[in-house]
Amino acid sequence: MATSSPCVVIGDDEKGYDLDLFCIPRHYVDDLEKVYIPHGLIMDRTERLARDIMKSMGEHHIVALCVLKGGYKFFADLLDYIKALNRNSDKSIPMTVDFIRLKSYCNDASTGEIKVIGGDDLSTLTGKNVLIVEDIIDTGKTMKTLLSLLKQYNPKMVKVVRDNQEHVCKPVEDMML
């Protein structure tokens, strides 16, 4: 029996797929050598993630918080699946959407502190399930700081989803509240 994994792991030795197997826009052809993650795989995993989110968070108001700029496309796709699941279920779960930017760098150097730019008043997160959607988590320091900041507002639950994870020592799940 195969063991299940919470994510698709693409090793450093992955060979990828030849470009002639895909419809590649002409303006990308000179910049690409291989396709490592086909779009269909990404969308299938995104749909599965939406199902997992609704299963674990779908009993109470969800505030979906998109970390800009990179996370917006993944965020939109994920919310489309969540909305479809919400629409087709017996109960409708209220969902609010908001956008923030996290700034921890100034002129390519880390400032050591995080600034949250945009978004509604974070006090509105009190008692709600908060879903943070990020594109890539590098070292995790910025996300840990954001989670610590959000904890002050007493959300009911906070979950972090990311589209991609670079090589890090600690999985994102260890940073959840």
Provide a descriptive summary of the structure in words.
With 177 residues, the protein is of the alpha/beta class. 26% of the residues lie in helices and 26% in strands. The chain has helices at residues 39-57, 72-87, 141-151; strands at 62-68, 95-106, 109-117, 129-137, 157-165. It has a five-stranded mixed sheet with strand order 3-2-1-4-5, with helices on both faces. α1 (39-57) packs across α2 (72-87).
Order of helices and strands: HEHEEEHE
**Sheet with the most strands: spatial strand order:** 3-2-1-4-5
Q: What kind of sheet is the major sheet?
A: 5 strands, mixed
* Separation, N- and C-terminal Cα atoms: 33 Å
The class by helix and strand makeup works out as: alpha/beta
List keywords for this structure.
177 residues, alpha/beta, 5-stranded mixed beta sheet, 5 strands, disordered C terminus
What's the short version?
This protein has helices at 39-57, 72-87, 141-151; strands at 62-68, 95-106, 109-117, 129-137, 157-165. The protein starts with 38 loop residues before the first helix and ends in a 12-residue tail after the last strand.
Fold blueprint:
Elements (H helix, E strand, L loop, with lengths): L38 H19 L4 E7 L3 H16 L7 E12 L2 E9 L11 E9 L3 H11 L5 E9 L12
